[in-house]
């Protein structure tokens, strides 16, 4: 499994560093319940959900987003499709607060492993926005369970489908990161967030700001090691970009067709900024790139060696659909 492999490499490296330091003195073509179950709606209180885009340029005065990636915010009518989804987010956030408290009460000798993010990470719970989704997450909870048992981890998943950086930042600041966990020097914190920012219209530069804000907050409020997983490639640009144009259009006024340039810009920005931030925090941050097995060009080059028992790779795809069937979310093999 891919994410598990990269996470284990990073975790093993961190444990080795901690040990040395002590001795001296981590064909589901729809995770689209998010898109198909909940339609756009208005509520009796007059709030319209999912009607206005996250980012727009209504009067031509400039590119404006209604939520800012680096400023903590709960989900608003700009980041949910309807009232039900809005309520589900708050319920999921409350449930994660309870899970964090329960994790503290059930402390064991196993090493705490805290996984923070969006739907890609929430899949480890077998849920989407707190609701069980067996088909969309099939086999994924078992990946985490097996790794936790084999590596003696005590996992805590703090993730909600559809979340962007500002939403994760809000959740962490409102109960999901108890001090008894955050101040454990043996804890490992894994951050994987940001793809929904670009998917909803935030520019790469602002998405970098959001990821840096989350990472900086975790660094400054924890004592353990942090692993930041770079944004994975996604191949759903031709489906999603028409909804983002305008304002995100090419020079001919047409929608972009690929998210890969934006993903690359975000990851390049992170690689440029975060090493200096890590240095400020005693090099407690590791950045992990898991993209090579998911990106079509890299996967095609390795297909004969890695995927002999899997479907023939489609050269027209941007991502390896045998690992990312809906072109956004890794399946169990991808995890």
Automatic annotation (TrEMBL):
Pfam families: Lipase_GDSL_2
GO MF terms, alphabetically ordered: phosphatidylcholine lysophospholipase activity
Protein name: SGNH hydrolase-type esterase domain-containing protein
Database matches in SUPFAM superfamilies: SGNH hydrolase (SSF52266)
Residue ranges constituting the SGNH hydrolase-type esterase domain according to the UniProt record: 116-335
